[in-house]
Every structure is written in C-alpha cells, then in structure tokens.
Amino acid sequence: MAGVTVDTRHWIGGERLDSAATFTDRSPIDGTPLAEIARGGAEEARAAVAAARAAFPGWAATPPPERARLLHAIADGVDARLEDLAAVETADNGALLRSHRRGVMPRAAHNLRFFADRLLALGHDDFTTRGHTNHVTWDPAGPAALITPWNAPLMLATWKIGPALAAGDPVVLKPAEWTPLTASLFADITAEAGLPPGVFNVLQGYGAEAGEPLVSDADIRRVSFTGSVPTARRIARAAAEHLVPTSFELGGKSPLLVFADADLDLAADLAVEQYDNAGQVCLAATRLLVEEPVRDAFLERFLHRARALVQGDPREEATGIGPTIHPRHLERVDGFVRRALAAGATALLGGGPHTELTGRTGGAYYRPTLLAGVAQDSEIVQEEVFGPVLTLQTFTTEDEAVALANGTRFGLAATLATGDRDRADRVAARLVAGTVWTNCFFVRDLAAPFGGSRASGMGREGGDWSFDFYCDLKNTVTAPKGWQHHG
C-alpha cells in the first residue's frame, strides 16, 4: 500500500510465522481491503511468550548502555522510514497524513530515545539506616505483554515498548486488529537495528483469540493495556491468576471548563481541537462546560471554527477531520447520538454520518457534532463515545463547574480555560483527573506521570514511573562491618 510492502505474518523469535487462518484489514478511508493478516490464537501466543522467555536471560544481562544503544538504533530506523510508516498508518487508521508526518511518527522515535536516555540516568541515592547502606536497583521483571489500541497504533505502542525494552523485559506486542500494519513494519526496524531474536515479538489477531491466551500465560510478568474498561476487567482477571502487575490506560469523558474570564477565542480553539483524529482520542475533552454568561459568545466562536473544518480524505493537506476507524464503530457512535436526540438533545452541529462523503468514498465518516440540552445523568454525558461528538452544558458557580466536571465515573484528564491564575490553581486541585491542562491541551512531557483515576485506569507511566512498573525494585542493605579484608 502507498508503495510500501508490509509483511502480514507474526514476528516471533526473530522469524516470520504464518497462521492457518487470516483476517481482512480494511482502510477506513474508502473501505478497500489493505491486507490479509495472520490470525493468531493460543498456539501462536504460546510461541511468542516462549520466544520472549528464552530471550529474557540474555536481554536482562545486556548492560544498560547496550540496551540504550539499540533503542537509539531502532529510533533511527523509525526516522529513516518515517514516510513509509506515516503512509501505512494513515491508510490503516484514517488519521491525518500530515499529523503522522509532522507529529506522530517523530514522537514514536522520541519515545524510544527518551527511555533509552532515562535508563542511563536511572538511579536512587544510597541512604543509611543505623550505619547500614541501602542501595536501590531496578531489576528486569520478565516478558511483558503489551496490548495497544487503534487510534494511534505505533506511537502508543512505542510509549510501552520503549520503557519495557529499556528495563530489560522482552516484549510481546498484540496490536489492535483494526490497525495491525505499522507494528509489523516496526518489527522489521527492530531486526535491522540488531535487536536479538525474541526480545521483540508481534502477535497478530483478535483479542479473544490471541490476546486472552497471551495475558493468561504464566510466563508473562507484566501486562500493559490501553483500551476499553470491559476489556481491562477481563485482562485483570486473567493476570490476577498469576499475580501479574498490570497497567491500564482506559476510557475518558474529560471536561473542558470555560470560565467567563477566559480568552474565548482560545477556549473555542481548544474546544474545536477535541475533534482531532475524528474525536478518537482518549484524552479528548468531549464535555464542554461553559459559564452561563458567556455561553452564546463562546458558542458563536466555536461554531464558526468547527464549520470551517474540512472533512475528507486524510491524505489531503486541506483535510481537518478524517474518517472514524470502522463502519462498525461509526454505527456505535451514531447510536449514541440517535439515542441522545431521541431523549431530547439538540444538535447544534452535525448530528449524524456524513452520508454524502461516505457514499461517495465508501469510508466511515461522521460529521463533527455538538449536542446541547443534555442532562448530567444522560448516557451521552456519562459514557465514552470515542468519536467526533461533544456535548454542551452550562454552569453558574465554580462549585457547580467542579461538580459537573467530576460527575462521571472517569478521571483521565481535564482542561481549563480561565484568565484567573488563582482560580486555575483552585479548580485544578479539586478535579479528579490524571492530567489537567490550563489554557492549553495535549502538552505532554515523557518525564511526567501519565494515567487515569477511577475507571480511566490504574497506574502511571512516564519518567521513572514506567521503570517502576516494568522492573522489580530491589533494595540491598549492607552492614558496615563483618567484612574480611584480603590483601
């Protein structure tokens, strides 16, 4: 596709392996089949884990500088194939090609470099207890199962692959079945960089058939998953059987609070930004909470910007919003909107699929949508839609704003727009969220902790927090006496 050849078999133990069955991968841009992908199951999962287990002693014993060097070499390979990776991922998941070229793929390489460098800086000052020395180390834990989503496939995979490999853990990556292709290209890049066989493996397939036996394997020592709450519950039950630590980054229903003292042009820009990647972003602030006196002024600015978005082929430079990932997902998104409208909501923007565009292209396009007249306890406010659908509510007091913002089971992120620094600090302190942005959105430093509260996840990744997860921390306590001195 796009002039790039992708091997659609598994990558296990440094070799390409077939499965007896395959599944079809289609592009959300126009519905065309892209490839037939190896459909793994329990047998392939066992083989991948066995390869990782066999590679573990050698990889764990590899000195950190060498691990870091290999991660930098893989990052160099990502940079060298940036255009190929961007073209393939755009075809596979429908996100904007320009975003893949300018932001997403460079970030994938940066993820690897960051954790390579962080490994070499990892450490804790020794400290003493009644004259005894305490020395803390981060020991490799064992094979890690990484299960990644379809909305930013390679970038989110490297967010997990980087620290896992740096920590000394061999990896079995199970990419989402709707976006399997860049994981396979990445496997080629790791081999070209000289990564030993079995240290990185790719298991293709469906969650129930390949993912479940993977996370249930007794030889897996870490499981990191980004995706839905129901799937996380199943993974947690499987991992609990062997007391395997898990890290979950799950759904979100994040608020954007717009106070009357905010820069309304900035607030409108932030709100329209939530349509990025057709709204298929876990962090997206899909609930617009606007102080009542500025509702109309904010809404005028928002609608002006949102209506200017060009929806279409994500490979075109002018396109501002592409398709949703799959016709089945488009139906799910539309179901939420139709039920909300039936319950009394009003569509101030959009409100359904882009039927003309979908009919002409065969893709899965949903119009940017804004719904008003929604109750706090309604499904559209409480449940993650994961599409280009925002809701609008108003508040009159700071306490009411905080109550609305915290009034779901999620707690992944929150965004504030205000001109009052004291208010920003005061409100941020009261919000239940893993990340709070004030007068900005999606500014992320890999050194910062990232994760969600409540149903939005468990654990934190980034910086040393990633190493805390992928390693077994050890404290060695040494007495000050009792030594025999040898000349």
Provide structural commentary.
The structure is a single chain. The chain has about 475 residues and is α/β, with parallel strands linked by helices. The chain has two domains: about 10-250 and about 450-475, Aldehyde Dehydrogenase, Chain A, domain 1, CATH 3.40.605.10; about 255-440, Aldehyde Dehydrogenase, Chain A, domain 2 (3-Layer(aba) Sandwich), CATH 3.40.309. Helix content is about 40%, strand content about 20%. It has 16 helices and 20 strands. Helix 2 (about 65-80) runs antiparallel to helix 4 (about 95-120). The longest helix is centred in the first third of the chain and has 25 residues, at about 95-120. It is globular and about 80 Å long. The termini are far apart. About 50% of the residues are buried. InterPro entries: Ald_DH/histidinol_DH, Ald_DH_C, Ald_DH_CS_CYS, Ald_DH_CS_GLU, Ald_DH_N, Aldehyde_DH_dom.
Q: Major sheet: size, sense and barrel closure?
A: 7 strands, mixed
**Strand tally:** 20
CATH architecture of the largest domain: 3-Layer(aba) Sandwich
Please, what is the CATH homologous superfamily of the largest domain?
A: Aldehyde Dehydrogenase, Chain A, domain 1
Rg on CA atoms, Å: 24 Å
Number of domains: 2
Catalogue the unreliable spans: none
Helical content (DSSP H or I, runs of 4+): 40-55%
Q: State which percent range the strand residues make up.
A: 15-25%
- The CATH class of the largest domain, by name, is Alpha Beta
Q: What structural class do helix, strand and pairing data support? A: alpha/beta
InterPro entries: Ald_DH/histidinol_DH, Ald_DH_C, Ald_DH_CS_CYS, Ald_DH_CS_GLU, Ald_DH_N, Aldehyde_DH_dom
Family: Belongs to the aldehyde dehydrogenase family.
Protein name: Betaine-aldehyde dehydrogenase
Pfam families: Aldedh
